[in-house]
Amino acid sequence: MNILEIKNLSLAFHSDDKDYQALHNVNLSLEEGKMLAIVGESGCGKTVTAMSVLNLNAPNAKILSGEIIYKNQDLLKLNEKEMQKIRGREIALIPQDPMTSLNPLYTIGSQILEVIEIHQGLKGSEAEKKAVKVLEQVKIPNAKERLKAYPHEFSGGMRQRVIIAMAIACKSKIIICDEPTTALDVTVQAQIMELLKDIQKEYNTSFIFISHDFGLVYETADTAAVMYNGHVVENSSAEEIFKIPKHPYTQALIKALPDFNTSKLEAIEGQPPSIKDYFKGCSFEPRCSKRMDICNKEFPPYFSIDKTKCACWLYK
Ligand SMILES: Nc1ncnc2c1ncn2[C@@H]1O[C@H](COP(=O)(O)OP(=O)(O)OP(=O)(O)O)[C@@H](O)[C@H]1O
Ligand SMILES: [Mg+2]
Q1: From ligand 1's centre to the CA of 49, what distance in Å?
Q2: Residue 173: what pLDDT?
Q3: Does the pTM exceed 0.85?
Q4: Which of 91, 7, 57, 24 is nearest to 227 (CA)?
Q5: Ion ligand 2 — residues with CB under 5 Å?
Q6: Which residues of the chain have pLDDT under 50?
Q7: Which residue of 16, 19, 47, 253 sits with most ligand 1 atoms within 8 Å of its CB, as the best mutation to test the pocket?
Q8: b or e along 92-120 (b: 16 or more beta carbons within 10 Å of the residue's beta carbon)?
């Protein structure tokens, strides 16, 4: 069963008196208790997609069309007060920089306690017990003692864990992780991925995991979507996409991953486009080694190849 469905979402940003489209008919679905990875280069629309779910986009953002269905309601139709009930309690966001969601002036403890008091209605020593429990769950050593610490006394990895602990405390149904591990070293990255897997198992939490690193997500994610220039160009199980990538862009992304056997790195030629560039056809065409005549004339529809949906004329 899908817990979240993004349907035909198109969004533009207004700047210099013009509208520039950042999302083009984005379709994504997240199954309950599963992890969906969204992968793609910088600027392809990953964060904008995540922010749309919680209605947290910049004020110059304008939804052009689409629906975001959660529990039989369209989140795009909710007002700010209704949306506040969804944020945290139902859907939590772990942003790229955890400092943006922790207040440097308050202790870790007071910030977790606030969440627990609001979302679980616990007070005093009961709330404190719960705070220690969630910190222990994310494997913060000496949890009781550490409640008195300030965010700057924690390492980047520990701050990520604190945000994850808050999401657990809220019993969020969906946790959206926006490149939460980019700033961390690889061993800490792996620990955070393990932690997310544990949470998924214990609470049946559903995850959207945003990353530009396919290598990090493919083992943990169940399904994956590859985005390019505001389009979802390929969508399938994570395993299928990683093992048999269909879209030339996905193939290039995977080839660009470090290969420890050959130490060869194949960069994708050219630059990703900006939302200000106009394309009549496929926006990957200028960088594509498999381009055909039709590619710069018409944007490809989705073609189904086994379980995969792929927007590329090669599969017509
Ligand atoms: N407030 C804004 N006004 C104008 N353009 C914006 C705004 N916010 C984002 N954009 C543009 O929308 C596009 C998508 O941005 P987004 O932040 O979703 O990229 P991303 O895939 O998350 O990239 P990264 O991997 O660097 O985080 C980019 O071209 C970006 O410049
Ligand atoms: Mg981003």
Answers
A1: 10
A2: 94
A3: yes
A4: 24
A5: 46-47
A6: none
A7: 47
A8: bbbbeebeebbeeeebbbebbbbbbbeee
Ligand 1 pocket, residues with Cβ under 6 angstroms: 13, 15, 22, 40, 42-48, 58, 60, 212, 274-275
Domain 2-90+172-315 belongs to what architecture? 3-Layer(aba) Sandwich (3.40)
C-alpha 136/C-alpha 39 separation (Å) is 31
Task: Report the alpha-carbon distance of residue 310 to residue 235 in Å, rounded.
Answer: 7
Q: Whose CA is nearest to atom 4 of ligand 1?
A: 13
Residue ID of nearest Cα to ligand 1 atom 1: 58
- Structure tokens that stand for 176 in this block: 């959206």
Question: What does each C-alpha distance from 204 to 31, 32, 88, 115, 174 come to in angstroms?
Answer: 11, 7, 16, 20, 9
Ligand 1, atom 3, residue with closest C-alpha = 13
Give residue-wise pLDDT tens across range 176-235. 998 866 666 777 778 888 888 988 999 999 999 998 888 888 888 999 999 999 999 999
* C-alpha span between 308 and 250 (Å, rounded): 12
Going from N- to C-terminal start, the domains of the chain cover: 2-90+172-315
